[in-house]
Specification:
CATH topology of the largest domain: Dihydrodipicolinate Reductase, domain 2
Number of strands: 13
Strand content: 15-25%
CATH architecture of the largest domain: 2-Layer Sandwich
Structural class: alpha/beta
Oligomer: single chain
Largest sheet: 7 strands, mixed
Number of domains: 2
Helix content: 25-40%
Mean pLDDT: 95
CATH class of the largest domain: Alpha Beta
Strand order of the largest sheet: 12-11-7-10-9-8-13
Number of helices: 12
CATH superfamily of the largest domain: Dihydrodipicolinate Reductase, domain 2
Distance between the termini: 43 Å
Low-confidence stretches: none
Order of helices and strands: EHEHEHEHEHEHEHEHEEEEHHHEH
């Protein structure tokens, strides 16, 4: 199976290295608008680099992995669909609802599979929590508490094209909460703050946020995120039910220091520093599944339509942050469709 990869930045390089060991992938070719960067990665990994994206497709592909800049995602997905090549694309599908809806409509018939990269769906902890909830072991669900905390902020140049903290970062939480519960968010109330670098506010963004979500069965969820978590990269979820609870991300490398005087465990010597460390195994599993999707042996585990639903929640949170008022998801969907 020949797989092409478009975009050879940090996550692209990581995925390229992973794809080399995915069963069934016998040939990997990379491409980038920055041809020198693509050539450098290819040389480091002992693979081939195409001179352009058009050359990549001309070479014949069984699947393509898109890890380019977010602003290029939608056009690149359309190009893959036009070529009839199964496509994996890192989230988000696009920076806005209109661009995402365009991809959803284009991919709706399912003739060419599209998988969107929400890697938490493949993390062992999230999967175990979902199974415990769905089996009834936790009873009825009343509260979810999710956090995504980066150890250090991204470069200033990333912020203007990121889509903002809710769309870029918390969208992972919104997707996993929908996937885990099988329920839909009906309203949100969100706030944001800036206490770090000035470039967040200058870009119309925030470096810290919090949101309260209400689901259609009246389950409540809190979602928080920050770009400044000096203790380490911290991604966790508390799933609390009437009969029990599960805590995702509470492992030996969780960047947690207890203030209690008596406990039997201590903070990890090497807490997670990046999302790639925290979700390494999930990324490997995710790309292995895409190989099965591209080979026609499995359906897409995360469609553009599902990614759109998570984006609606992010849009609602951003609107709530800016207005200071609760926002109903029905209003966001209606406005987006107007």
């Amino acid at each position: 199976m020949k797989i092409g990869l478009i975009g050879t930045g940090r996550i692209g390089a990581f995925h390229a290295e992973t794809l080399r060991s995915v069963p069934g992938v016998t040939d990997l070719v990379v491409a980038d608008a920055d041809t020198a960067r693509a050539a450098s990665l290819a040389a480091a990994l002992g693979i081939r680099a195409a001179g352009s994206i058009d050359d990549l497709y001309a070479d014949g592909l069984d699947g393509v992995v898109i890890t380019a800049a977010t602003s290029a995602h939608a056009p690149l997905i359309h190009q893959a669909l036009d070529a009839g090549v199964p496509v994996f694309c890192e989230k988000p599908v696009a920076l806005d609802v209109a661009g995402t809806r365009g991809v959803v409509e284009r991919a709706r018939d399912g003739a060419v599979p599209v998988q969107i990269g929400f890697q938490r769906r493949f993390d062992a902890g999230y999967r175990a929590a979902r199974e415990a909830l769905r089996s009834g072991e936790l009873g009825w669900l009343h509260t979810l508490r999710a956090c995504t905390s980066d150890r250090t902020p991204p470069p200033a140049g990333y912020i203007p094209t990121s889509g903002g903290l809710f769309r870029d970062c918390s969208i992972h939480d919104f997707d996993i909460l929908r996937w885990l519960t099988g329920r839909e968010v009906v309203s949100v109330y969100a706030q944001g703050a800036n206490r770090g670098a000035d470039f967040f506010a200058a870009g119309g963004d925030v470096d810290t946020c919090a949101a309260l979500l209400r689901f259609d069965d009246d389950t409540l969820a809190t979602v928080t995120a920050t770009r400044y978590n000096g203790a380490g990269h911290d991604v966790r979820l508390e799933v609390c039910g009437s009969e029990g609870a599960r805590f995702v991300g509470l492992d030996d490398r969780a960047p947690l220091s207890s203030a209690e005087p008596r406990l039997s465990w201590q903070r990890a010597d090497t807490p997670y520093a990046t999302f790639m460390e925290r979700f390494h195994d999930a990324y490997v599993t995710e790309l292995g599944v895409f190989a099965e999707v591209a080979a026609g042996r499995a359906p897409s585990p995360c469609s553009p339509a599902e990614a759109l639903e998570a984006l609606y929640v992010a849009e609602a949170c951003e609107r709530s942050r800016r207005t200071g008022e609760p926002v109903a998801l029905a209003d966001v969907r209606g406005a987006a469709g107007a």
